[in-house]
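Sample pair:
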Amino acid sequence: MKYTFTPKALKNKDIATVTLATTASDVTVRTSDGRTVIELGVGKREEMTRRKLVNVIRKIVSLAKAANKKKVALDFFDLVFPHLHMTPTELGEMLSTNLEMANFEFVKYKSKPKEGWSTLAEVVVLGKLGSDVEKAVRKGKMIGEEVNKTRALANTPGGAMTPAILAQSAAEAAEGLPITTTVLGVREMEELGMGAVLGVGRGSDEEPKFIVMEYFGGMPDEKPVVLVGKGVTFDTGGLNLKSDTNMYEMHMDMSGGAAVIHALSLAAKLKLQKNVVALVPAVENMPSGSSYHPGDVLQGMSGKTVEVLNTDAEGRVILSDALCYAQKYKPRLVVDVATLTGAIHVALGAHASGLFTKDEELEGYFRKLGEESGDYLWPMPLWDEYESEIRGTFGDWANTGKSRYGGAINAALFLYQFTKDEKGKEAYPWVHLDIASRMTSADGEYLAKGAAGTPVRLLIKLLERF
C-alpha cells in the first residue's frame, strides 16, 4: 500500500476522506460535489484506549472497501488522543502497521474477480508532519508487511507446505539480507542426537528439517537473542489422531516458526544492531506404519528421555531439541513461540497468548511489550508444584500430564526441563509464548479470516529494545 503525505486537505472524488466522529455509529456520505466522506464513530474521545485505537485504524480499511474506494485521506492529528501519551512516531508506526494488517487477504488460491481485489491502494496522511513521523509510518508499513508474510506462510495449505518447503521459504525470506541460513537434514540431526525431532518426523514421507537462521548485526562479542519457533507443517495428531473438526486448520501449526523467520528477517531489514538467531524444527506429524507410538521413549539432544503418552503432544517434543541446541549460542535470552496447546485457548479465549517464565522481571517486560505492540499476553503459572504431572514412569519426562487439567502449564513445564544445562541449572533466561489462542484472527478485530501473524510485532519491539 502506498503512503503519501500532504499538509492540506484534498478535494478529490477518487479519494474518500475519513473523519472521526463522537457518535457511536459509522456513516458514509457523499457530498454535493461528489466526494465520499467516511465518518468513523468512536464515541467519547476521552474514553478512547490504545486497544480501541488499533481497531479504529483497522476499521478504516473495511469502511473504505464497503464504499468501493481504493484511496483514503485522513488527518493524522484526528488520531491524536493526548491522554494515551503516545508520541507522534509511535502513532505513525501503529497507523501504518495496522492499516497493512487490515488490508491483507489471502487470495493465492482464489480466482481474481473482473473488478480486481477490493484492497486499499493508497493512504494520504494529512497534516504538517516532521520527517521522523513520516519515517515511522514507513517503518510501520515494513512491520505490517512482514506480519502479513507470516500470515501468508501460515495460511498455506499443508499439501503445499512441507518441512523442505518451509526451509526454502526461510531462505527466501533471508534473500538479499545479511542472514546466514543453514538447514540440517536427517543425517546432521542424527549426528547431533536430535532423537526428539527425528522421532516425531519419522511417520511422514516428508523428511524433517532443522532450520537455523543467524543475523549478527551487533558487536561480535554480544550474546544473541535466540528465537525458537514450532514448525509442524501439518499436524494430524499422529497415531493419536485428531478429530475431523480440529484437523483442517492444522497447516497453521507452524505459525510460531513462520513468526520467528519473519521477525528475524524484519530485524535485518530494519538494520538492528543486534545479534539474533532463529531456530525452527520442522516436521509433519503423520500416522503411518513408521510413526512413533504412544508408549515410545525418545532420547533427544539433551540426553534426557521423553516418554510419549500422546503423539498429538508433538510440538513440545520437537522444541525440546531446539531449546537444547540454543545453548551452543550462550544466549542472553531465548524466546520460544508455539501453537502449543488447545488448553491455552480454553483458558484465555481468542485475544491473548499465554506467557510463561520463571523470571518476574521478564514477565512484566513482556506484558508491557504486548500492550504496546498489540500482541497481547497474559501470564500463567510455571510453578514447580506442577512438575509431578509430567514426571515419566519409564522415561525422564512425559509429554503430557497425568490428568486433563492444566494442559498449557504442563506443556510449558515440560519445555522448561530442556532449558537447563547438564548440571540441572538454567542455561539461559527463557520465555515461552503459547500462541495457540492467537493462531487465527478473532471476531471483532477487523482482520481477514485465517492466520493472525502473532507475535511478530512483539518480537521486533523486543529485539529493538532488549
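The first helix runs from residue 50 to 66.
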